[in-house]
TrEMBL record:
Pfam family, one: 2OG-FeII_Oxy
Family statement: Belongs to the iron/ascorbate-dependent oxidoreductase family.
Official protein name in the record: Os03g0690500 protein
Domain Fe2OG dioxygenase: 231-334
Keyword annotations: Iron, Metal-binding, Oxidoreductase
Molecular function terms, GO-annotated: dioxygenase activity; metal ion binding
Domain of life: Eukaryota
Statement: the UniProt record of this protein carries the keyword Metal-binding: yes
Length: 397
């Protein structure tokens, strides 16, 4: 579900923009389309504003070409069970078994759901309700938070972080918060989320740290190896609101992409719509009561030398007539703040994972460089990791 630099500025975090006005348009843009994009953005009302205005057709800036990729059948038992559910209550008493489950999931499908994860229901339920309340306020009440200025605003509301970069817009609105390591002051947050977002972000970060310990063990490394690399020092909480869509076949909620992070912890409501690309088909990641979704990010695939899979995923447009879908992603990354000693650090395949005849598949990069590449291309359907693959790696697949 998903996105980083300051001067860049080294504080750009998952899924924001660092611009107030559109940059130079990609080839293929026409003046009419640019005017439509700017007119939509200038409303500061997002997709919810279109729905409130009573649109009965999807505007052309949201049109996506048909996706020829087949969709797995929900009736197929194998597809229904494709995303493993892992019980973390057994992580201490039966650690080897849980590590094996995490290894299998991360190496084969890149996604798994966790139950008994330690994040209380009052926080998960409260977070979903708060995001829904904020997005369902009148447009004027949300306009004060609407911006594309990532350099000066740690809390931002807008629609489509890549509105002026991607070939087509997505049918969703987003509230972004840079939550760690330096959380915003309470008054920087919308009142609707102020009482729950900081606590939820802390709980999601602790869960991510625990999962990173399991993943370290799964890679045959010391338990604290990934955490010690700073993989969850920075956390961005990205809350997406997917309004009902009058023509769901014409657009998508979120276009296919993989996450430019080390790890993502996703909270989704019961509506469904998230799909992962597995075996050449779109497979549902179904809502499971009490579960949180965990998926491997691009940077974890990179440092694991391809052992852990960062899988492309998407969100289909909301087919409900009267209810919005809500999800909250906690993207875990390094601390890109000016004070961070890691902001200019090179990340490449971990040395122990390139021994024994398995040469590096990716070149080393700074996280800032990776995110600049990701932001610059937008959600254009091309995996960002391909840009960092070493030429010899193709022969290893």
């Amino acid at each position: 579900p998903l996105h980083y630099h300051q001067s860049f500025n080294h504080r750009r975090l998952i899924f924001p923009n660092s611009i107030d006005r559109p940059p130079a348009m990609p080839s293929g843009y026409d003046d009419d389309r640019l005017r439509e994009l700017k007119a939509f953005d200038d409303t500061k009302a997002g997709v919810k504003g279109l729905v409130d205005a009573g649109v009965t057709a999807v505007p052309r800036i949201f049109h996506h070409p048909p996706d020829p990729t087949p969709v797995a059948s929900a009736a197929d038992a194998a597809d229904a069970d494709a995303i493993p559910v892992i019980d973390l209550a057994r992580a201490d008493a039966d650690r080897d078994r849980v590590v094996a489950q995490v290894r299998s999931a991360a190496e084969s499908v890149g996604f798994f759901q966790v139950v008994n994860h330690g994040v209380p229901a009052r926080l998960t339920d409260g977070m979903l309700a708060a995001v829904r309340r904020f997005n369902e306020r009148p447009a004027a009440a949300k306009a004060a938070f609407y911006t594309r200025d990532a350099a000066r605003r740690r809390v931002r509301f807008n629609s489509n972080f890549d509105l002026f970069e991607s070939p087509a817009a997505n049918w969703r609105d987003t509230l972004f918060c840079q939550a760690a390591p330096d959380p915003p002051a309470p008054e920087e947050l919308p009142a609707d989320v102020r009482g729950v977002l900081p606590e939820y972000a802390g709980a999601a970060r602790r869960l991510a740290s625990s999962v990173l310990e399991l993943l370290s063990s799964a890679l045959g490394l010391e338990t604290g190896r990934l955490g010690g690399m700073g993989c969850a020092d920075g956390v961005s909480v990205v809350s997406n609101y997917y309004p009902p869509c009058p023509e769901p076949e014409a657009t998508v909620g979120t276009a296919r992409h993989s996450d430019p992070a080390f790890l993502t912890v996703l909270l989704q409501d019961g509506m469904g719509g998230l799909q992962a690309l597995l075996g050449g088909r779109w497979v549902d990641v179904p809502p499971v009561a009490g579960a949180l979704v965990v998926n491997v990010g691009d940077l974890l695939e990179l440092v694991s030398n391809g052992r852990m899979r960062s899988v492309e995923h998407r969100v289909v447009a909301n087919r409900s007539r009267d209810a919005a879908r809500v999800s909250v992603a906690a993207f875990c990354n390094v601390d890109l703040g000016r004070e961070s000693s890691r902001s200019g650090r090179l990340y490449g395949p971990i040395a122990e994972l390139t021994a024994g005849g398995d040469p590096p598949r990716y070149r080393s990069t700074t996280v800032a460089e990776f995110l600049a590449h990701y932001d610059g291309k937008g959600l254009d359907g091309r995996p960002a990791l391909h840009h960092f693959r070493l030429p010899a790696a193709a022969s290893l697949d």
